[in-house]
Structures are given as C-alpha cells and as structure tokens.
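Re: weekly structure request thread

Next one in the queue (221 aa):
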Amino acid sequence: MNDVVDARHLRLEADATYVFDKGYCDYGWWQQIDEAGATFVTRFKRNAAIQVVAQNPCDGKVILSDEWVEFRHRSNRAGHKNGYHGLRLRRISVYREGKSPLILATNDMDSSAKDIAELYRKRWQIELFFKWLKQNLKLKRFLGKSQNAVSLQIYAAIISYLLLWLYRSRRCAPNTSLHLLLVEIRETLFTRLPTGVQQMYRRRRRERAELIEKTQYVLSY
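Done, posted below.
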C-alpha cells in the first residue's frame, strides 16, 4: 500500500505541523491539512507545474530562494482535479553541500525559511533513526501479526537502542560507532568471564551477603 493511502485516514489536528517526504504527494490531502487549520512541510516533485507569484528576501547562502507559488493547472495529466489549484504555496530552496538544492513546499507563510528547513532536517533524522532500527535490531520481520505483537517488538527495539546509547555515552568515546558497539555486545554478552574475574565477583557477593547478615543481626538485637 502506498504511504499516502493510509495517511488520508489520519485524524488531522489544528495548529499541528505535518512533515513528510515526496511519497505523500497528494494535493487533495494537502488541501485537507490546510482546511483543518494545520500546516505541512514537504517536497515538490520535479514535474510539478507551478508558477512564481512573489519572491521573499533570503540570505542566498543557506536559503537560496523563498517564493510564493501557485499550480498552473486545475487537474493533472490523469485528469484528477488539483484541490490546491488557486491557492498559494511557499517554495523554499535550501543549499546542500555536494548535492542539488532541497526544494521544499509548505503552506506556512509566516515562519522563517530557516525554521521550515530545520523542521525537514529533523524529519530526516527521525527517518535515519528508524532505518537504523530496521537494519540493526531485526525489525524487518515481525514475530507476530497482531497490533500488540508488532507494538511490543517495536518497543523492545527502541528500548534496546536507548540502553545501547546510554552505555556508549557513559562508557565509550562520543564518536564510537553504535553499530560496532552492538556487534561487540552481541558477541560478548553470553561469553564466560575469565576465572579470575568470576572469583572476584563471587567474593564480592559473599562479602555483601555477610555484611547484610551482620546488619540484620544488629538490628534485630
């Protein structure tokens, strides 16, 4: 199923901002978001037939252009009506080092172009996060098909990621690769400790047990 098919059933909230990629390109759905009193940030497709209505000032470094645009045609090539025809959108071109500019589309006419670009950057960070989960924590296949089973597996993966992140932040260098750390933990998690270390842990447990026993005896006396 295409992502946007499921998105059309999403309950839209007023004053919310929805950030999504080109996979959700549905001008009718964009119109629904606008009518719900919400804003969106997404990307224009290359073949989008739009015309510039006005231009806003920009720094020319991070933000290459900031324009108000409108769709040229009332319907697309397949004959489907363009619900956003006649309404203004904002097209923002963002500089990317070594890559072609990022062309953003939004109905937010008030926020700064940099704030809108930052919203889309954060969306990409979330996508990278789930991509890492799927690639490293076995989320490509689910053990069960019910909603509860799927939710539990996702929660387990997120908890594992957070524990791994905490371990790295407290015990490792900041630039340590999470993937390599995960591989190391997988390989050593069930490895038997050297005899000397095992004896040290046994001695510490015995000493703690003796201390607890003495403390309880003193309190009872």
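Residues 3-112 form one domain. Strands lie at 17-19, 39-43, 50-56, 63-71, 89-94, 102-106.
Next request, please.
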